[in-house]
């Protein structure tokens, strides 16, 4: 009986320490930002930060467009292409698997390097987009 009680207590202790998917997303976004952001520029894009909002379940990437991508006219001309590429990237991402299974929304906010207050591109992707 004592062994059974100890096993139940151990199981409850492990369960109590279990991190929810929302807590995990919030922690991982914060840790990624602290460790890697801003990232080096790759294909005219730099990731400035990543955040997760538990109340809306939105996982957001905040980026900056540089060089030739830092052009509102060019971005507007290729908006559909950007949407398609990001959709495909989310679909193929194995690192986002748990978040996709949880039905999170992924958002991208991309600003101009030359004019940081200018948002050149913003988009959101829900389960209907990436499943």
Overall description:
With 131 residues, the protein is of the alpha+beta class. It is 46% helix and 24% strand. It has a 4-stranded mixed sheet.
Describe the structure concisely.
Helices cover 46% and strands 24% of the residues. The protein has 131 residues and is of the alpha+beta class.
Helix content: 40-55%
Order of helices and strands: HHEEHHHEEH
Quaternary: single chain
pLDDT < 50 stretches: 3-16
Q: From the alpha carbons, calculate the radius of gyration and give it in angstroms.
A: 19 Å
Shape: globular
Q: How much strand content do the residues show?
A: 15-25%
Strands in their spatial order, largest beta sheet: 1-2-3-4
Alpha-carbon distance between the two ends: 48 Å
SSE order and pairing:
Elements: H1 2-16, H2 21-36, E1 45-53, E2 58-65, H3 72-77, H4 79-92, H5 97-101, E3 105-112, E4 119-125, H6 127-130
List keywords for this structure.
131 residues; alpha+beta; 4-stranded mixed sheet; 24% strand; disordered N terminus
């Amino acid at each position: 009986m004592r062994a059974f009680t100890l096993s139940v207590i151990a199981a409850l202790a492990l369960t109590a320490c279990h991190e929810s998917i929302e807590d995990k997303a919030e922690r991982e976004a914060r840790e990624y930002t602290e460790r890697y952001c801003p990232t080096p520029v790759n294909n005219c894009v730099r990731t400035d930060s990543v955040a997760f909002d538990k109340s809306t379940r939105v996982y957001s990437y905040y980026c900056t467009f540089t060089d030739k991508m830092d052009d509102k006219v060019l971005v507007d001309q290729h908006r559909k292409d950007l949407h398609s590429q990001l959709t495909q990237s989310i679909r193929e991402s194995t690192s986002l698997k748990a978040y996709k299974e949880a039905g999170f929304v992924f958002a991208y906010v991309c600003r101009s390097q030359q004019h940081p207050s200018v948002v050149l591109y913003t988009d959101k992707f829900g389960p209907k987009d990436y499943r």
